[in-house]
Amino acid sequence: MKVDLAIIGGGGAAFGAALKAEELGLKTVLVHQEDLGGTSLHHGCMPSKFLLEAAWDCWLAGHPRYSSLPPRSPVLDWPALLREKQAMIAHNARLRYQEVLAACPHVRVLNEKAWFEGPGWLRTSSGRIEARATVIATGCSPRSLDLPGTDALQSVLCGPAQAFDFNRLPESLLVLGGGATGLEVAQCFAHFGTWVTLLQSRSRILPAAELEISEALEKRLRTEGIEVVTSVRAKKLGLENGKPVLWADCGMRERKFQAEKIFVAIGMRGRTESLNLAAIGVACDANGYIVVDEQLRTAAPRVYAAGDVAGPPLLEPVAAREGALAVSNAFEEAGASLDYEGIPTAVFTEPQAALVGLTETEALGRGLLCETRVVDLASVTKADLGQRREGLAKLVVEKDGRKLLGFQALAPQAAEFIHEAALAIQQRLTVDDITRLVHVFPTYGEIFRLSALAFKMDVKRMACCPA
Length: 467
Ligand SMILES: Cc1cc2nc3c(=O)[nH]c(=O)nc-3n(C[C@H](O)[C@H](O)[C@H](O)COP(=O)(O)OP(=O)(O)OC[C@H]3O[C@@H](n4cnc5c(N)ncnc54)[C@H](O)[C@@H]3O)c2cc1C
Prior knowledge:
Blueprint: E1 2-8, H1 12-24, E2 28-31, H2 38-42, H3 45-62, H4 78-102, E3 107-110, E4 114-118, E5 121-124, E6 127-136, E7 140-142, E8 157-158, H5 160-163, E9 172-176, H6 180-192, E10 195-199, H7 211-223, E11 227-229, E12 232-240, E13 243-250, E14 253-258, E15 261-264, E16 268-270, E17 303-305, H8 316-331, E18 345-347, E19 352-357, H9 360-365, E20 370-376, H10 381-385, E21 392-398, E22 404-411, H11 414-426, H12 431-436, H13 446-453
Parallel strand pairs: 1-2, 1-6, 2-3, 6-17, 8-15, 9-10, 9-15, 10-11
Antiparallel strand pairs: 4-5, 5-6, 7-16, 12-13, 13-14, 18-19, 19-22, 20-21, 21-22
Helix pairs in contact: 1-8, 3-4, 3-6
Flavin-adenine dinucleotide binds at residues 8-14, 31-34, 38-40, 43-45, 48-49, 113-115, 137-139, 160, 181, 271, 274-275, 307-309, 314-317, 319, 348.
């Protein structure tokens, strides 16, 4: 088969590429080896957020926000919840993936594995493809544990693909990893009633966040009953009295942790092993991600990589944007690249952590003179009336001119209001620009304006709707 463009993958990056190719009228083949929709639809963003939302309802039933509402013991029908989740996935698979491709007459879809025979030459189980350009969009896979005893405990170890389909809720869960996935999974299962312990190798959870955010989130998880242990070095796995155990060094002493299931969220690796990249002379970095330049070009002529397989940030909207950008660079000679620093991210815990731009440490590391303000969520009227006061925000600005450099919030709905900060940072706005904008009252998002106001006044002593 001869085509203009071959896309390997069926997730966000592949779809970004396919839709751009359709717009340009390119004869395209999209080859994917699993169900359409990739990680986001099947084991990532969508099932995890579905379960987190359900878990929050479950938690609220037993921990109502208002003392006038008596707590109830939630009766959870886990198998029924999983059926609802599957129905949500099936609905979205049809609506957002199958029907979208069906409306792309230039894109042919093959449900097969693909690998390289040479630059521009692909092999699939049904034949050969010759393409003027190729986009590799094969995603990434969870990094596996490499500890003595791992092999004997394969049925206990799990990642998102297994945990979001447990045939029953585990009584106890050990989560390895204090990044976004580990934190979300830990709180999700804890809210459902599982006894959760979270082990983090670094000295704090969510190391990408400001220290204040990490510490406040850790405190919140602890108050909900999750045991959080930091600076842990896992040593070996085994069975004791027939039960799974992990031995670890925790500072000066060894501890053992026992749980029915062990969720491994210790990082990801690019998914390239089946692609035969050696045939096209394309290299991967130490973490298994394909090495690309700013325009997403690999070392092979007219072969691009987009999405998770090209390395962090590992985010669905980034994958989609990169897929489109690779096609644009290949066929429109756009020479375009993404501004990765302006991309907001969020951790969908309760409260949510949302981050954009530089942290204070990063700004100082770049030799920027900066000022910061930290505002407690308790200063926000909505937090008071919504009885959700735990959280804070931190704003980092340049000392001269007070242009925004970075903003982080730990607050309900922070993932919804982080975009205002992202746009403000991207547009190089100042503290004055933010304070001038009248914000909707009462909202959790007012914490962004209060963080800017905090450069001018004491926001703890203000009317509920500060002018
Ligand atoms: C638990 C979890 C929660 C997440 N939550 C969020 C979130 O809230 N927000 C967010 O933005 N991101 C989130 N992510 C990340 C997000 O899911 C990914 O960034 C995104 O799915 C990456 O898309 P992709 O197209 O690069 O790869 P994928 O979606 O993984 O797609 C890879 C595709 O390649 C195909 N493939 C692989 N090898 C071959 C081959 N040899 N031949 C043919 N096809 C092949 C596969 O079939 C698959 O279709 C989450 C991830 C996880 C695991």
